[in-house]
Amino acid sequence: MNDALAAALRRAADHQERFEARFAAHFDALADPEGGGARLPPHGRFPARALELVRELSLRGGKRLRVALLHEAAALVADRPAPGLDAAAISVELLHTHGLIHDDIIDDAPLRRGGPSTYYAYRAEFPDHPDTALALAVLAGDLAAFLAVRALLTGDLPPDRALAMATVATDAAAAAVNGQLIDLERDFHPAPDTAFLHTVTEYKSTHYSILAPLRLGLLAAGTDPAPHDADLRAYATALGTANQIHDDWLDLFGNPDTLGKPLGTDLRSGRHSYLVHALLAATADDPAARTTLRAALGTPDPAAVATLRTLARTHHLDRTLPAEAARHAHRAAALAAGWHHWHPGAVAFFTHLPAWSVTRDH
């Protein structure tokens, strides 16, 4: 690891460390009946349990990349921390929690971040009432989404800025839902092309994980992001694509203990990921390999993951897919390096971050 990348990761780690305590304190305030908090009903235990599970998943870990991105986006134009950054960080992480809860319902995933998914926590609590468990998990995800907007509207920001930032957050949330919809739609295509996969990535993750934090950071620092939107979108698209390709690679070649979930989640559900797209292309002229691929995809048997891993290695995708992720990461780095009109320290962060995004192990 070079010194510049190490410096960028130290900055990200500093943001993460400061954020964890603030995030926990935010949940403490939400649950405090004296302070109004989330205004939990005076009777019934389900609302408090939903908030508890949202808190548990939210605080269980994660890279907090969104937190670092919005702080560094503010640092592009401001010399000191801007008011509203904590509220924005809490908002984007709650939006992420919302997405994780609903993703795990859609994927029927038992594990998330080394512990039970919210859906499976409810299934364990209501083994004889699966419909109730499903409904409670959906509502817990909805609660996280509304609390994300609330975090921005109840902070100490001027009303016009709070409204502008809440608009960014809700736009990103709507994009993520549309992304989830087309993520499901792509599995109805025999072989969706790369453009379709890029669109899924852009809407399902890039908008709320990268572009929204960039916009929110600039807004918190008092800068209108609109004149810079083309630059922000280009960077977010390149970095988001690199991240997703690497995530797809990790789903087959990563360490499950490090990832905090089993390998092959997307593959066992038959999801047409970048990896599957590459496998389909690589086996186009190999009928036997194509038959093996089709038989293994969408199979819940864990042995199918080993079959797909062998097939991917046979066709060298363990090397070519990381190279494709690196190509998009290099583009993101080159774009950020051209941001000469902004503060050099933050520019350096955005320039070197993409290299980490395609070498991380989780």
From TrEMBL:
Cofactors: Mg(2+)
Protein name: Geranylgeranyl diphosphate synthase type I
Keywords per UniProt: Isoprene biosynthesis, Magnesium, Metal-binding, Transferase
PANTHER family, per database record: FARNESYL DIPHOSPHATE SYNTHASE
GO process annotations (BP): isoprenoid biosynthetic process
InterPro entries: Isoprenoid_synthase_dom_sf, Polyprenyl_synt, Polyprenyl_synt_CS
MF terms (GO), sorted A to Z: metal ion binding; prenyltransferase activity
Family classification: Belongs to the FPP/GGPP synthase family.
Gene3D superfamilies according to UniProt: Farnesyl Diphosphate Synthase (1.10.600.10)
